[in-house]
C-alpha cells in the first residue's frame, strides 16, 4: 500500500504518478556534488542512460542538467547551430511552434513544415523541403501531446540520411523516451532530448540529452562560441 498522502490521481502525460520508492529517494540527505558518493551515482546514471536510449557507441555523449524539458531546446539551439543557420522543424503541434521560437531567439532561421492538426508531414514533403534548401538540422517531435501525433522517427531519419546526409536529426522525446520505441544507434539519430517527469518516471527538474559523436563534432567545429553560458556543452562535459 502506498504511503503517499491522498491526492487526485494525475492522468496527464506528465508529471505522472511516482512510485513510493522514487519519492522516498528524494528525501536523501544533502551531499557534495563533487564528493565521491555523488560522482559514483552520477556515473551510474550516465551509464544507464545509454541503455535507455539504446546506444553502445563510445562517441555518444549523455547530458543531465538541472532544468526542464524546454532546456533541451536551448541546448540544441545554443550548441549545434549558429546565427543565421537554417533549420527545418517538422510541425505536428504546439511543441513544434515552441521549438521554432527557441531557434529564432538564438538568431537561427527556422522553417516549419506543417501538417493539418492531428497529422504529420509526409515523407515526400520532407524530401522536397530538404532538396530545396540546405539545413543544418531537422527536428521532429516524437510524441506531440497537444495533438496526440506519434511521428515515425526511424523513417524520418532514414530519409534525412539519404537526401541530406550532412543534416543532423534532432528528436524531441520529452513525451516518448521510456514510453515509445526509440533506438538511438540503429536509427542513426543525432540528438534526443527529454525530461525526467514523464516516461522515465521521476519528479520534474532534469533536462536529459543523448548526443551522437557526429553532433559533438559539429559542436567542436563551431566558428563562434555557444550562445549560452549555462547551456554550453563545454560546461557539462566530463
What does this structure look like?
This protein is of the alpha/beta class. The chain is 32% helix and 18% strand. The chain is built from 7 helices and 9 strands; from the N terminus they run H-H-E-H-E-H-E-H-E-E-E-H-E-E-E-H. The strands form 2 sheets. It has a 7-stranded mixed sheet with strand order 1-9-8-7-4-2-3, sandwiched between helices. The chain has a two-stranded antiparallel sheet with strand order 5-6. Strand 5 (143-144) and strand 6 (149-150) form a beta hairpin. It is globular and about 55 Å long. The protein starts with 19 loop residues before the first helix and ends in an 18-residue tail after the last helix.
Radius of gyration: 18 Å
Anisotropy-based shape: globular
Number of helical runs?
7
Separation, N- and C-terminal Cα atoms: 41 Å
Return residue spans where pLDDT drops below 50 for at least 5 consecutive residues.
Answer: none
How many β strands by DSSP? 9
Multimerization state: single chain
Structural class of the helices, strands and pairings?
A: alpha/beta
Amino acid at each position: 500500500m502506498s504511503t503517499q498522502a491522498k491526492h487526485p490521481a494525475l492522468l496527464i502525460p506528465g508529471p505522472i504518478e511516482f512510485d513510493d520508492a522514487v519519492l522516498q529517494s528524494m528525501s536523501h540527505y544533502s551531499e557534495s556534488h563533487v564528493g565521491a558518493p555523488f560522482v559514483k551515482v552520477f556515473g551510474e546514471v550516465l551509464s544507464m542512460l545509454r541503455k535507455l536510449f539504446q546506444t553502445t557507441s563510445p562517441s555518444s555523449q549523455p547530458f543531465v542538467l538541472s532544468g526542464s524539458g524546454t532546456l533541451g531546446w536551448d541546448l540544441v539551439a545554443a550548441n549545434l547551430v549558429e546565427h543565421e543557420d537554417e533549420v527545418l522543424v517538422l510541425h505536428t503541434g504546439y511543441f513544434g511552434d515552441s521549438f521554432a521560437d527557441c531557434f529564432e531567439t538564438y538568431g537561427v532561421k527556422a522553417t516549419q513544415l506543417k501538417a493539418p492538426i492531428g497529422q504529420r508531414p509526409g515523407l515526400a514533403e520532407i524530401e522536397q523541403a530538404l532538396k530545396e534548401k540546405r539545413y543544418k538540422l531537422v527536428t521532429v517531435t516524437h510524441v506531440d501531446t497537444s495533438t496526440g501525433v506519434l511521428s515515425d522517427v526511424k523513417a524520418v531519419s532514414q530519409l534525412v540520411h539519404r537526401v541530406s546526409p550532412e543534416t543532423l536529426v534532432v528528436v524531441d522525446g520529452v513525451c516518448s523516451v521510456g514510453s515509445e520505441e526509440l533506438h538511438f544507434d540503429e536509427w542513426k539519430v543525432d540528438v534526443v532530448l527529454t525530461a525526467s517527469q514523464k516516461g522515465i518516471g521521476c519528479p520534474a527538474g532534469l533536462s536529459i540529452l543523448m548526443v551522437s559523436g557526429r553532433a559533438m563534432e559539429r559542436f567542436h567545429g563551431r566558428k563562434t562560441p555557444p550562445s549560452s553560458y549555462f547551456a554550453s556543452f563545454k560546461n557539462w562535459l566530463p
